[in-house]
Amino acid sequence: MIGLLDRLARPFLYAFDPETAHRLAIRLLQLAPLAPAAPDDPRLVSRVFGLNFPNPIGIAAGFDKHAEIPDALLRAGFGFVEIGTITPLPQPGNPRPRLFRLDADQAIINRLGFNSDGGDVVLRRLAARAKTGGIVGINLGANKDAADRIADYVRLIEKFAAVASYVTINISSPNTPGLRDMQQAGVLDDLLARVIDARERVTKNAGPTPVLLKIAPDLSLSDLDDVVGIARTRRVDGMIVGNTTVTRPAGLHDSQASEAGGLSGRPLLPLADRMLAETYVRVEGVFPLVGVGGIDSGGSALGKIRAGASLIQVYSGLVFRGLGLLDEIKAAMVAALARDGSQSIADYVGADAAAVTAEAWPG
Fold first, then answer.
1. Is 173 a catalytic residue?
2. What are the phi and psi torsion angles at 74 (to 5°)?
3. Is residue 116 within 8 Å of residue 65, measured between CB atoms?
């Protein structure tokens, strides 16, 4: 049923501009009577930051921005869903057009700017499905005009800890002015100190809530040294590497490649994998990593895990490959496990990290 819906809907959706197509896709998933996907191979089960994932493949923040369809996505076969980015107060984001599909490059550029229904609306949606089960993380952001952006993250931790499987501190979107400055050492240390303190304050009532930090792939290696050092000191539970890039890799062909915003999709893969491997070797196993950026095949998914990811997330690849990508990735993982006689996908995590960091820097 899922495959049939996907094959029928994708040509229809392609007839619309990307943002309208996205809204229609959300609506279709709300209305379609999806049967649950087939059970996953038990060797794909992953225990990461204290949670049991039925498989290591998640859908990245940005697809279900307002927590409208987490359960439909879980039924489709994702091991976890990350909703958001959520801001404390509703905000419209940047003016349209703000989402561009680069068909010639299998890439997306977005400058959405944290368009959000706001914390109260999203909390009601998540509270209504709180007993449904499944791993649903929440990606948190600050309002564009907030006087104290750190206070925004603290407020969101306090609001969502009880209904979140985990929370992600997103300070790496390129589309909110000044947000990436929060990756600088002094600001980041204060942010994580206050966020972890807020998490500890609400643990008694909310239970343990893993806190992840999502970083940009555009950090310099010296800045990455600082970020990882602070994340380790402040004892975050994991990192997501990484967000979209403001760089434009050589060889882009689409006429829209010069649009402002963050680039995702196939051209991001080399940079995203390199930053993931660089992060992995610096973390030294203190906490796990989630790899995201450029996955559009079973091979690129396995490569992401071998570069250092315990979990992976997809989004742009789904635009061009459809939900069939999810089955392809699972099949590639199971085939690799069978070929190598391995009992867990965790056996591959970081296997190629050192080799990846020795390669020439992606251009």
1. yes
2. -65, -40
3. yes
Give dist(CA 170, CA 157) in Å, integer.
12
Model pLDDT for residues 251-294, shown as the tens digit of each residue? 999 999 999 999 999 999 999 999 999 999 999 999 999 999 99
Q: Report residue 272 as tokens.
A: 């995203």
Tell me, letter by letter, the H, E, C secondary structure of 75-113.
Answer: HCCCCEEEEEEECCCCECCCCCCCEEEEHHHCEEEECCC
Report residue 234 as tokens. 């402040």
pTM: 0.96
| pLDDT (tens digit per residue) in 175-221 | 999 999 999 999 999 999 999 999 999 999 999 999 999 999 999 99
Question: 229 falls in which pLDDT band (50, 70, 90)?
Answer: very high
Q: What are phi and psi of 15, to 5 degrees?
A: -75, -10
- Are 81 and 62 in contact by the 8 Å Cβ rule? The answer is no
Which of 151, 140, 134 is closest to 85 using CA atoms? Answer: 140
Angle of CA points 66, 67, 71, to nearest 5°? 155
Q: Which of 46, 172, 173, 300 is catalytic?
A: 173
Give which of 273, 268, 215 is closest to 243, Cα–Cα. Answer: 215
Q: Which residue has the tokens 């609400």?
A: 202
